[in-house]
Design a protein that fits this description.
The protein has a domain at 26-79. The protein is 70% helix and 0% strand. It has helices at 5-19, 27-44, 49-58, 66-77.
């Protein structure tokens, strides 16, 4: 019965049904996100604007980017 093509089809369908609804977890992406959030929290706790800008640059923001300007506005408003 193991050689029966219907048997292998049924096993394939069963395997697919067991996997349905389950996504693979991308652990590297999760670790990268957690590390970036940690760096961002540290940046927000900076005591000077210079320290904050340096920390934000380490996160990959360009000096003249709109995102850096917005981040500075948020940081300044926190004081």
């Amino acid at each position: 019965m193991a050689d029966d093509p219907k048997s292998s089809d049924i096993q394939d369908v069963m395997r697919e049904e067991k996997r349905r609804g389950k996504r693979r977890v991308d652990t590297k992406a999760i670790q990268l996100t957690q590390e970036r959030l940690k760096l961002l929290r540290e940046a927000l706790n900076s005591e000077t604007e210079r320290e904050f800008v340096e920390a934000i640059r380490e996160l990959g923001f360009a000096d003249d980017s709109e995102e850096l300007s917005e981040a500075l506005k948020i940081w300044r408003a926190s004081f």
